[in-house]
From TrEMBL:
Keywords: DNA-binding, Transcription, Transcription regulation. This is IclR family transcriptional regulator. Residues 76-259 form the IclR-ED domain. Pfam families: HTH_IclR, IclR_C. Residues 13-75 form the HTH iclR-type domain. PROSITE patterns: HTH_ICLR, ICLR_ED. SMART domains: HTH_ICLR. PANTHER family: HELIX-TURN-HELIX TRANSCRIPTIONAL REGULATOR, ICLR FAMILY, TRANSCRIPTIONAL REGULATOR. SUPFAM superfamilies: GAF domain-like, Winged helix' DNA-binding domain.
Amino acid sequence: MSDTEKDARKYLIPGLERGLIILMELSRSHREMSFAEIVKRVDIPKATAYRAIQTLEYMGFIRRHPSTGLYSLGVNVLRLGFEYVASLDVVQVGQPVIESLRDKTGCSSHIAIRDGRDVIYVARVSAANATVRRVSVGTRLPVHRTSLGRVLLTDLSREEFEALYPEESLPDNEPGAPADREALWALVQEDRRRGYVIAESYFQFGISSIVYPLYNHDGEIEGVVSIMVPVHEIPAEDRDRLRVHVAEAADTISNLLGYQGHAGGRSQM
């Protein structure tokens, strides 16, 4: 351990740290876990883990199933997450806009933000006949593998981009995704010049998307708005119409956030 890490750790509260480790493990597992499994996964002494779990259960952050005795995340964890999402101005002003966007396009519509190397969906509305329900509020996806993430990266300088991706190779590479950092940077620069992304079967085969940036009053990218089109390729006769609707929604939300320009760039294609 480096001296810097030692200095940082001397101010930590061990009990709080261990409680948060348990919460993060339960969050990652997406399922119920026994006490023994939790102890094994977090590598914390049984007595310490027991006290942490009892505290978290008392405060409503985890719950114990009355029949099986298994533990899962409690309602207070969900409340914290939804209160965070609800506190975002982009969600408050954007929700009715994406509902209108859904009605105009017939496509599921979303608002997402970037958290480090993840895209987080913070608002969504489903099309009436939607058969694909891949994402929900709170879903995280890798920035570099999604069209939404590419648009979110267009606000970064080269220095900021390299700080975010210090490695030359990108994690969790899959067919269709950029092979390395330079390939991603090249894509992002094309996206920046264009001002939006139309991605066909980019993240998932048979699902296309149209994505525009959302700007705040400082002209910085606050998030993105998108529609999900359940086709491999968007028909030529629909492409411009759908794109204009997304561009208009982006302009509306950005203006409500205090941006004075045109976020949508409707004249481009």
